[in-house]
Amino acid sequence: MTVVNWIAAVGRARVVLYACTLLCAASAGETAFAAEPIKVAVYPFELEDFSAAGGVVPTNARDARYLAEATAEAKTWLAESGKYALVDTAAVQDEPARTHTLHACQGCLGSITRTLGADQAVIGLITRISRTEYTLLIQFYDAGSGEPVSRYFTGLRMGADDSWPRGVTWLMKNRILAKDRD
Predict the structure, then answer these.
(1) Domain ranges in the chain?
(2) Tens of pLDDT along 165-178?
(3) Residues 147, 142: Cα–Cα separation, whole Å
């Protein structure tokens, strides 16, 4: 083998080695970035009523319906994002879950969520200011520590209780999942 042939053979070997290195790095990168979806327990959305009738008029079937629709809307957006895998919360019988006061349970959320096998918990809180004004807070909590991971708030005054699911859609689309679309 002449020196020229040897140099050409070494050059071809380098090209093959470089191509193999790139291919391995690309497949390792796909594996590293194809993270498992976060297992998330989305609890039924809760209502705080600070309206003038809040202490007098109890939560009714209409409120319950729109809270359920708001919860369903959040679950749909999270599940369809591919970033989250929903964990069923129907079996939870703890007092704060039954009385819809998880937002104020002072640290109980972590242990409740861990028993479901979820990584994170999601609580939605609709605060009624008046019969036509509300705010919406959606918080994500770590199941291990029970501490908040992120919180998203909108002070949109979009109408009566029938607009609660639209508020969830707006918050999911424009805040919570917005960075995933970029």
Answers:
(1) 1-34, 36-181
(2) 999 999 999 999 99
(3) 6
